[in-house]
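Data follows
____________
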Amino acid sequence: MKVYRSLSDLPRIKNAVVTQGTFDGVHAAHRVIINRIKQLAAKHDGETVVITFDPHPRMVLFPDDHGLKLLHTLDEKIEALENEGVDHLVIIPFTLAFSRLSSLQFIRDIIATQIGTKILVIGYNHRFGKNREGTFEHLKEYSSLYGFEVEEIPEQDIDEVSVSSTRIRHALEAGNVTLAAKYLGRFYDCEGVVVKGKQLGRTIGFATANIAVTDTNKLIPANGVYAVRVFINNTVHHGMLNSGMRPTVDGITHAIEVHLFDFSVDIYGAKIKVQFVDKLRDEQKFNSLDELKNQLEKDKLHALEVFSKHE
């Protein structure tokens, strides 16, 4: 996949079949759209183009709203779209000036002139342009004038619920990583670097690796204990992760720490990826380290049951 971080870098693409959006999470509904542009590109001897934006438009339009956390970092989004077999990815820097483009300017100057779109495929109820004025009907009105076709993909439902990045965020914020995985079509994950902690876990037989998440805009599931798969140097390990305030031993600072089963290698400084498989329980405070250790033993057995079910 070729990646362009400016429209000025984009060459003329033969029979470009295009879609656009934030594509946060590249979830199940996104993949329906991507598969459709791949089908159309194959039919018309063309190439697929995905247009996305960085930073996320809401972070520019509502800079004082610090509540938005993202399912994907930009690097994760690029990797996910490449894995889906997209030919070209155009990352448009989203600025206030760009947000003021009218829908007509966007259609004429970018979709038609700079990209030379043959077919544009958009998701259900997709909006674009200044004040989100652009609609599917708007696209149909101008498509014949500027020489491209337009197609809208209907809502994608799972268990009669429309899949969206917002719904996935809400599931993760509630700690429901299994529901998020159903909507994503894969386990939710995050990346980070292993840093030194207080090393209290090893005193009760549950040594943990403290994880500093790489991107502060990345959404971390709700506080609690999770069964996780951990990738270190492309090797997968099973374990359990606690995200929260560690009320038994600290209670002041938030930390993300993972205990890997049957693992004793020093990985300080290593970059790792964590996949959230299932939630084991809420975080809780124990009266002693012995009580905590007893619960961790139960958590480990629970996690092993989870892994046997999934694998």
About this structure: The domain at 2-161 is CATH 3.40.50.620 (Rossmann fold).
